[in-house]
């Protein structure tokens, strides 16, 4: 039995919650995964996994062994990188997740430069606005806008994204163009809500050192960034969105910026990854590349003067 391979299979089963998912993720026959775990449990003399018809979860011994495996495998990967050309040319599959807008407008258009620099890294990119469980879903790194609330993850700040307040031309013809915050009385918003936490987002403005929230009535609420702007274009109310996401609509005249002298607070963009991936050369070079990318002047993350 290859113990390191067995440990790798075991950790992936714990992270994904099933033998079949782990086998598919590692591109191994499902029978081989089952045999490896049986051999590993026999070698250790303990039961590592509890199997039910619905899920697979670690036993108490399995949970303790998982933590050791994660640490050992990370150390092994880093050690091999030090004494091989992997440090200069990292390889393997990197699983990343990001909001659809960040992927579509910022990361994917620039990816040819990254893949040319690191041709032996294969990327699996998830594009969605929902939070992902990095450990359970086997994701190496995520990009998120807003405050990083999960203190169990390593956070690497990338940029502060400018936001804009905007509405459709048709909406402004009906409701008028607000000149200040007091003029927002009588207006309405498109509300954004999180399908996971249920939190709802209205309008916020930076007034000196204070963040001032303005609550307005709504007729439509959505839980995706693209749907949020689509509802705004359809005339359902004011929205606040990162400038990069609304730039095309603003340049085409489908949306109009309002209250430019009273800006929304900037939105942090952060790369997050589990502590055990901190030593991964693939994660490290990708996050370093993201830092370089976000420092470019034409990303749209900050508006031009």
TrEMBL record:
Q: Which InterPro entries match?
A: LysR-type_TF_proteobact-type, LysR_HTH_N, LysR_subst-bd, WH-like_DNA-bd_sf, WH_DNA-bd_sf
Q: Which UniProt keywords apply?
A: DNA-binding, Transcription, Transcription regulation
> Which segments constitute the HTH lysR-type domain?
1-59
Which SUPFAM superfamilies does the entry mention?
Answer: Periplasmic binding protein-like II, Winged helix' DNA-binding domain
Q: Which domain of life is it from?
A: Bacteria
* Protein family: Belongs to the LysR transcriptional regulatory family.
Q: Specify the protein name.
A: LysR family transcriptional regulator
Instruction: Provide the taxonomic classification.
Output: Bacteria, Pseudomonadati, Pseudomonadota, Gammaproteobacteria, Pseudomonadales
């Amino acid at each position: 039995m290859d113990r390191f391979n067995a440990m790798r299979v075991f950790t992936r089963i714990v992270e994904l919650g099933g033998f079949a998912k782990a086998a598919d993720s590692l591109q191994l026959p499902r029978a081989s995964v089952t045999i490896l775990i049986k051999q590993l449990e026999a070698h250790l003399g303990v039961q590592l996994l509890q199997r039910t018809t619905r899920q697979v979860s670690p036993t108490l011994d399995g949970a303790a062994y998982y933590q050791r495996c994660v640490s050992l495998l990370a150390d092994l990967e880093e050690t091999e990188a030090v004494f091989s050309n992997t440090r200069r040319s990292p390889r393997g599959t990197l699983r990343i997740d990001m909001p659809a807008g960040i992927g579509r407008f910022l990361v994917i258009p620039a990816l040819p430069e990254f893949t040319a620099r690191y041709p032996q890294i294969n990327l699996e990119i998830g594009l969605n606005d929902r939070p992902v469980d990095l450990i359970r879903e086997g994701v190496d790194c995520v990009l998120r806008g807003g405050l990083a609330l999960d203190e169990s993850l390593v956070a690497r700040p990338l940029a502060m994204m400018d936001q804009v307040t905007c509405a459709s031309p048709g909406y402004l013809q009906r409701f008028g163009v607000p000149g200040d915050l007091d003029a927002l009385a009588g207006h309405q918003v498109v509300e954004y809500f999180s399908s996971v936490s249920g939190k709802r987002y209205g309008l916020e403005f930076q007034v000196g050192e204070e963040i001032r929230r303005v609550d307005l009535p709504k007729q439509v609420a959505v839980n995706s960034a693209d749907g949020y702007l689509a509802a705004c274009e359809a005339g359902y109310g004011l929205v606040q969105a990162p400038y990069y996401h609304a730039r095309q609509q603003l340049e085409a005249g489908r949306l109009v910026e309002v209250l430019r002298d009273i800006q929304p607070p900037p939105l942090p963009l952060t790369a997050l990854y589990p502590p055990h991936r901190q030593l991964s050369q693939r994660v490290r070079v990708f996050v370093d590349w993201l830092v370089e990318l976000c420092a470019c002047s034409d990303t749209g993350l900050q508006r031009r003067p």
